[in-house]
Amino acid sequence: MEIQVQFNELLGLNPDLYWRNGTVLNQQINKLLAMNTTELVKVCNARTQFYQCLGTSYYACMNLFNILDTSDPDFTNAFDYTRTYIGLEFMCNAGFEGEFDPSLLVEVVTQWTCLYSVQTTKGYTDCMNKFTYNVAPANFCNLVDQTGQCLSAAYMSSCADKGAAWYGCENFRFTFDQTCWGLRCNVPQN
User: Fold this and answer.
1) Residue 105 has what pLDDT?
2) What is the domain partition of the chain in residue ranges?
3) pTM for the full predicted model
């Protein structure tokens, strides 16, 4: 809990926020990310310190199923908490530097205005709502895959960039990388 407090304080957030307030924490971090690339870098630096402080326990702490294996589990807050940190992990590392194909290089800082604004589009909202309202244990990984492809199309439509399409899918898929093995984001070829 102390490490969470340090992270929150680095970003000027309420120090009492933790996984049980995952939705509020996600919203507060998104407000910072919406400001500008300076805040993006600030959030990424705080996430790096958070990761380093947790050390080898980071992935256990960010595991959705570990968080839900508590008394009085709350799926929405747990999901928003883990997707916030795992999303930041992707965004501040692989997404920040670009992806595997240099011809499709996505630098988050360079395209930040478009990448961030996609979250306000109907296409993005439709993808996320379909996931949120239809997810169940029996269809979980299939729905993760479908949502990733849906987000790829939403990012491609908004940013008209193959790298942005990859980023949209991969940023979502990466959140479930330890749960849904073998899923991949395919970049449109047109």
Assistant:
1) 41
2) 1-92, 102-190
3) 0.80
